Amino acid sequence: MPRLFTEAKALLGDLLDRHEAGTASPVAYPDYRAFASVVATDAFLRELRQAEATGAVSLACGKGNRRDQVAHVRLVAPEVLYAHLARTPIKRIAAEAHARLIAGLSLHPGLMQAASDIASAWGRARTWHAFGPHDADKLRGALSLAQAILDDRHIGVDYRTFSRRVADDSKALERVECAVIRLLSGILDLPPDPEARPREALRALGLERFAPPLLISGRVDLVDADLSRATPLYLGISPNEADRVRFREPPAYVLTIENFASFSRHVIEADPQRIGTTLYVGGYPSLATQQALRRLVATLDDTVPVFHWSDIDADGTWIFRTIERAIGRTLRPHLMSPDIAAQLGKAVPGRPAPIRCPRESGIFALAAYLEREDARILEQEELDPRLPV
Q: What is the CATH number of domain 214-382?
């Protein structure tokens, strides 16, 4: 649909806007039906002819009884039109914003590349995830916070304290946490679609001070407490206290579970005798939880199989891989198979995103299945619990 204008500066500005967006020789049109008067039309055409006289644009006349009218205006020399309108080219604006973005910062190569990509988007008159060149100072703060995370300055620190120490503002991180996650996504292995739940994604990296409790069900005691007579449904401890846990006897299995309802049903319905040890990891497992799992599993003989049960989707695969890396030994999927998904799952909305998973991983077969166009996903609550095989 042609672009129609009654203001000359708006028309000329639109030509530059489209030039900056990548349109070659953009064209715009006068809207003769919308002029308020003949005087307004004459003033409009006078401004266009002034621009034409500089060589910035060319005016094309109509045909027949409209041969005296300007039919359309074409951009000829963008640099000349910038000067005529006293407008700064977007590429110069982007370059200046990029200079402010990284000035004085010592950044990881991945963050330097991200800053370059941001400036490149700005130079094409586009935003970077809703951030424009006028947001350079805000994004500079996001780069500083992302670099501080890569430098491990966030370990053992809560959001507000970390933000205050790095940005001298306790709420700075909350304002740009999605940008921080986006900057880190090309460098670190983050959960799928981390911007949907940035707080949980950062918690998985270790940005926490008070980790959620680790829930353990099984025949376990604490180093200074015999729980054999108490027989609680499950024991809740701080992940940092995992070294206090003692297995009363080798469990038949170890099972980590993502979902609390599935965890509760498993320990009540599937394993009321507590022949295995079941742990609730709380969605994306925090760094403290990952470390606790590694310490607990390390106390067991390799003959004790370790399983994980999550949703059959990209998030579940990521959680499985995170725990697999954390414990450093074979991890087996429980109720997470292509067959179960194909039989009971629902279609994936849209094109499934690729899932990075090495062939030697215990979840490789499911990850490969989830990349198929006919893949189906399934929430673990849809399944009744049963003992691992």
A: 3.40.1360.10
